[in-house]
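Design a sequence for this backbone.
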C-alpha cells in the first residue's frame, strides 16, 4: 500500500469552515476536486498541521448530523476507520467515542478515545466538536493510542436547500511517523472522508432523520 494512506488514521474529525478561515492567508490549498477544497497550515509553535475541508451540497443539515452521529457506520465512510462506537452518553448531545483505524505496513494501527459534543447556534449551524479524552479504556498492545486530536464538523444551512459543510482538524498520531511524510499526504484522508459523507447522506435511513440537537428547547 502507498504511504498516502497515513494522515487521517483518525478521520472522525474536525473547527467549522467559515469566512474567517478563507481570509487567513496562512492556509495553503492542497487539493481541489469534485467541489471539495482541502487546506493545510502549520499551527504556531507546534509540530502539528491543521487541516480544513470545505464544500457544499443540496442535502439537509439533519441528515448530515445523523450520518456523523451513527458511530457504527463510520467504518463505511470515514477514511481508514475499522470500527467506531459510542462508549457512553453524557447527554443527548454529548458522548464518549472510541474508534480504531487501519494503517499501512509497516506502521502500527491506531485507536483513540474522544469527547464529542453536538451544538446548534441561533442561525441553525450545527457543530460536532471532538477532542481527545483521557478515559479508562485500556490501551491495546497492537494499537498506538492517539495522544492528541481535535476536530469539528460544521453544517450551515443556506438558500435553495444548500448546506455548507466544513471540517477542521489537527491530530498527533503518536509513534514514529515522520512529519514530512504526514505533510506530503495531508490531502487524501480528509478529501475522501468528506466525499464519502456526501454518498452516505443520501441513504434512505438518514433522509428523514431528526437528531436530538433539533429538539433542544
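Sequence:
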Amino acid at each position: 500500500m502507498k504511504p498516502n494512506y497515513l494522515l487521517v488514521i483518525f478521520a472522525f474529525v474536525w473547527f467549522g469552515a467559515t469566512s474567517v478561515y478563507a481570509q487567513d492567508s496562512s492556509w495553503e490549498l492542497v487539493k481541489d476536486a469534485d467541489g471539495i477544497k482541502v487546506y493545510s497550515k502549520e499551527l504556531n509553535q507546534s509540530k502539528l498541521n491543521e487541516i480544513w475541508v470545505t464544500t457544499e451540497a443540496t442535502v439537509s443539515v439533519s441528515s448530515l448530523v445523523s450520518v456523523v452521529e451513527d458511530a457504527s457506520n463510520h467504518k463505511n465512510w470515514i477514511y481508514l476507520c475499522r470500527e467506531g462506537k459510542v462508549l457512553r452518553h453524557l447527554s443527548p448531545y454529548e458522548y464518549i467515542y472510541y474508534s480504531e483505524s487501519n494503517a499501512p505496513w509497516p506502521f502500527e494501527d491506531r485507536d483513540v478515545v474522544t469527547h464529542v459534543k453536538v451544538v446548534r447556534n441561533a442561525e441553525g449551524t450545527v457543530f460536532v466538536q471532538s477532542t481527545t479524552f483521557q478515559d479508562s479504556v485500556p490501551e491495546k498492545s497492537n494499537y498506538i493510542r492517539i495522544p492528541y486530536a481535535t476536530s469539528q464538523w460544521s453544517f450551515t444551512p443556506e438558500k435553495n436547500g444548500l448546506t455548507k459543510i466544513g471540517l477542521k482538524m489537527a491530530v498527533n498520531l503518536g509513534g514514529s511517523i515522520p512529519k514530512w511524510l504526514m505533510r506530503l499526504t495531508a490531502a487524501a484522508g480528509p478529501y475522501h472522508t468528506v466525499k464519502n459523507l456526501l454518498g452516505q447522506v443520501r441513504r434512505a435511513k438518514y433522509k428523514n432523520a431528526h437528531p436530538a440537537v433539533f429538539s433542544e428547547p
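The first strand starts at residue 28 and ends at 33.
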